[in-house]
Amino acid sequence: MSVPLGRRAVAEAVGSAALVAVVVGSGIQATELTSDVGVRLLANSLATVFGLGVLIALLGPVSGAHFNPVVTLAAWATGRRTGDGPTAREVAAYVPAQVAGAVAGAVLADAMFGEPLVRWSTHDRFAGHLWLGETVATAGLVLLIFGLARTGRARYAPVAVASYIGAAYWFTSSTSFANPAVTVGRAFTDTFAGIAPGSVGPFVAAQLVGAALGLGLVVAVFGRPAPAPAGPVGVQGEPEPAARALP
Questions:
Q1: What is the DSSP track for 114-138?
Q2: What gap in Å lies between CA 17 and CA 44, rounded to an integer?
Q3: Mean pLDDT computed over 95-108
Q4: Which H helix or E strand runs over 218?
Q5: What's this model's pTM, rounded to 2 decimal places?
Q6: Strand, helix or coil at 236?
Q7: Cα(121)–Cα(197) distance, integer angstroms
Q8: What is the mean pLDDT of the chain?
Q9: pLDDT tens, residue by residue, 141-190
Q10: What are the phi and psi torsion angles at 101 (to 5°)?
Q11: How confident is the model at residue 81 (pLDDT cuts 50, 70, 90)?
Q12: How far is the CA of 2 from the CAs of 6, 91, 112, in angstroms?
């Protein structure tokens, strides 16, 4: 029996909030412990890898552990052909839950470290090479998630996706936000992981372009999925991590 949509939306909100709390909180903690920017980024990336892996393993069976609007939209786009993706109604529930959760996670992290609960970030990330980094990071994420699903290896999502995000922290110029909800949430904190509100729009645009490129790569590498067979469709079971997609 499928999980009710309300519970799945709550899982997406909780997962997104926890993910941003990990990203922002570890950034604040690292800043307080060292002045070395490289060590700060290492601490931030390691915390994100472990936190993201745990969240996917925990919440994947409930909602699919998207925590990311581009993943939800990509799952919807591909599912229109195969008949196994989220519906428009599910997308309309997931995306606001992800964004609201991300903002709540940033506020929570600030509260835990005695920072102002809401203070717009002054960390400008407005440059073409950063947008390219976001495009690459998001394209790779989408290719990984849907590649795992297409090859029947969605069970590896907690490790694979978390590992990819950890690597992308270092090999992309943008430190791999790769997530519009997380990008919006990080605008609410003027700490190490923040992004200035004026930089959010281009980042989100680059992420959407990256998602489209990622889906194109999925088709190029794995081919097009077979269309859904005509006739009645049975009741869907609980979603697996990454099978209905994911960070």
A1: T--SS---------HHHHHHHHHHH
A2: 16
A3: 98
A4: helix 197-222
A5: 0.91
A6: coil
A7: 7
A8: 92
A9: 999 999 999 999 999 999 999 999 999 999 999 999 999 999 999 999 99
A10: -65, -40
A11: confident
A12: 11, 16, 36
CA atoms in the 13 A half-sphere facing the CB of 27: 21
The enclosing H or E element of 213 equals: helix 197-222
Output the six-digit token pair for 188. 């609410």
Residue type at 201?
A: G
Return the amino acid letter for 72.
T
Two tokens, residue 48? 């994100």
Residue 232's pLDDT is 42
Start-to-end C-alpha separation, the chain: 25
Which of 48, 57, 52, 64 is CA-nearest to residue 11? 64
Contacts of 186 by beta carbon, 8 Å cutoff, 6+ apart: 20, 23, 24, 102, 106, 121, 177, 193, 194, 195
Tokens of 205: 């645009």
Average pLDDT over every residue of 66-84: 91
Task: Say if CB 214 and CB 141 are below 8 A apart.
Answer: yes
Q: Rounded to an integer, what distance in angstroms lies between the CA atom of residue 171 and that of residue 166?
A: 9
| 3-class secondary structure, 150 | helix
Output the pLDDT for position 128: 97
How far from the centroid of its chain's Cα atoms is residue 11's Cα?
14
The upper half-sphere exposure of residue 60, i.e. CA atoms within 13 Å in the direction of its Cβ, equals 23
Q: Which residue has the tokens 């992420």?
A: 207
Q: How many angstroms separate the CA atoms of 234 and 227, rounded?
A: 16
